[in-house]
Amino acid sequence: MSTSANGNSSLSAVRPTEVAKLDRVVIRFAGDSGDGMQLTGDRFTSEAAAFGNDLSTMPNFPAEIRAPQGTIPGVSSFQVHFADYDILTPGDRPDVLVAMNPAALKANLADVPSGGTIILNTDEFTKRNLVKVGFENDPLDDDTLSAYQVHRVAMSTLTRGALEETGLSKKDAERAKNMFALGLLSWMYHRPTEGTERFLREKFAKKSDIAEANILAFRAGWNYGETTESFATTYEVAPAKLNQGTYRQITGNTALAYGLVAAGQQSGLQILLGTYPITPASDILHELSKHKNYGILTFQAEDEIAGIGAALGASYGGALGVTSTSGPGVALKSEAIGLAVMTELPLVVVDVQRGGPSTGLPTKTEQADLLQAMFGRNGESPVPIVAPLSPADCFDAALEATRIALKYRTPVFLLSDGAIANGSEPWLIPDVETLPDLRVEFATEPNAEDGSGEFWPYVRDPETLARAWAVPGAAGLQHRIGGLEKADKTGHISYDPDNHEKMVRLRQAKIDGIDVPDLVVDDPSGGKARVLALGWGSSYGPIGAACRRVRKEGMPVAQAHLRHLNPFPGNLGDVLRSYDTVVVPEMNLGQLSMLLRAKYLVDVKSYTKVAGLPFKAEELQGVFTEIITSTEAAK
């Protein structure tokens, strides 16, 4: 047995193949929700990250815990885009589709471009499974797949054969067929194998027989690629030339959790996450619960309202309260967010948006909570809004949301979404010395302006308009806060009309005065572009990729992206008015466009999509090209 290219002597190398060098590849693993496609895709992604490729991923799975087996609603997929250069999206269409059954093929075939590669698990193409998803004829026998490069692999049979001597039952052996597929794809693209084998031994440390069975299946897939004549070519994608530093693969939810941990360290405050599990935000709770050694306290409450109540109570007590949820949970938390506005306490509200309304599409992405975050409370109840633009950016966005909450004594919305939360990309691990100083000065002595020796909770910092923050129980700092309107400075309950007017305007002025950086415009044409593509949240990647394509065609287009949605950057109005046309792609029915038109009286062009899936770069490329052409023609 000879040693393979990756140095693993357990994998055979017996047949020379042609090696094609590529700059990028998009692979989609698809199968039944019980076929382990998320694990398969995640492991391939981890090895691509370890190899040094730039990458971006898009998991896609059913909302049902266990949809009917072999049906289209039960299809789960994982798409990974890896390249030797900086990429922005998980890719529009898969160059390679690995379909574990007919349902996976039917659900994903339309996305595969002509000439693309399809690898099929032929064992699942039974008459019963074909009828279940509406195939009148077997697509392996007619011309359904004539436009593609098709590889038929009896993965279930080959996996059972590889595990025959392990003593596992037929059913248990077949469960490892996803590792067979992973081994085959790892061979095709010269991926390292040691990390996956180590991962499997660690994951199944208490079930060594299962660990070894999965490793045998993984090696069998690799060796099948080496020995079969079906695959005459393998492919290489060189490492990307990224900025110098240490990287790790990270999902948006994990990066956001790490950002909150860093915020606790930089502020010196304990972090309390008061939350209730909800898709797609639950992983934030799971991750933060691992970091008690960093002063993180996680509390899984009985419902959404109790979760935010605990978080707000923690802030009242001198900690930093955080609550995480999705759109339906925000609706339940709205009264408590209003209480945080009235009491002027720091609070971070993480909303990982999903399709709505009501229960909606729990596992699909959307950007439709912007207006809810902006206005979804009774009365004049302004709240700052920060939105990360990518999985890795969630770390910095969490720090920024915390900075605003602590400095201005206000609840802050952190608007992520499903595409960001579950997607992954390389993250440049920052130098701790570069992180912001978030330390807070608590009130330590009475501050009454009438010389009474009392503590007045609504005496404000003249620069930020933030009120003084006193820890309950501090001697001489007794004070009253709550949901009823408060008298300016003293905090006494007040029903005075003039006082209410003053306090409403003070709370609004505090939010309006938050220091946010100016909007930066990317325009390689040096100012020749007359069309601006403006986005927020996870639309950053598709918009950026589309702009790259349009520019390659010789058409100038500018791009800008909003991280701060309330308040807007101070120069936003000037930027909008400096272009003939501003187009705003959103995964909603035009919520940001509505806000921009109302505030700046600029007739932006809204391009919307609410399909539960992110924009495709090719889709936006067509939109931008058409708008640029019409703008030029109108001159």
UniProtKB/TrEMBL annotation:
Domain Pyruvate/ketoisovalerate oxidoreductase catalytic as annotated: residue spans: 34-221
Source superkingdom: Bacteria
Pfam families: POR, POR_N
Keyword Oxidoreductase: yes
GO MF, one annotated term: magnesium ion binding
Alphabetical keyword list: Oxidoreductase
GO biological process, one term: response to oxidative stress
EC primary class: oxidoreductase
Annotated SUPFAM superfamilies: Pyruvate-ferredoxin oxidoreductase, PFOR, domain III (SSF53323), Thiamin diphosphate-binding fold (THDP-binding) (SSF52518), TK C-terminal domain-like (SSF52922)
Domain Pyruvate flavodoxin/ferredoxin oxidoreductase pyrimidine binding: 274-489
E.C. number: 1.2.7.11, 1.2.7.3
InterPro entries on file: 2-oxoacid/accept_OxRdtase_asu, Pyruvate:ferred/Flavod_OxRd, Pyrv/ketoisovalerate_OxRed_cat, Pyrv_Fd/Flavodoxin_OxRdtase_N, Pyrv_flavodox_OxRed_cen, THDP-binding, Transketo_C/PFOR_II
NCBIfam families reported in the protein's UniProt record: OAFO_sf
Protein name: 2-oxoglutarate ferredoxin oxidoreductase subunit alpha
UniProt source species: Amycolatopsis umgeniensis
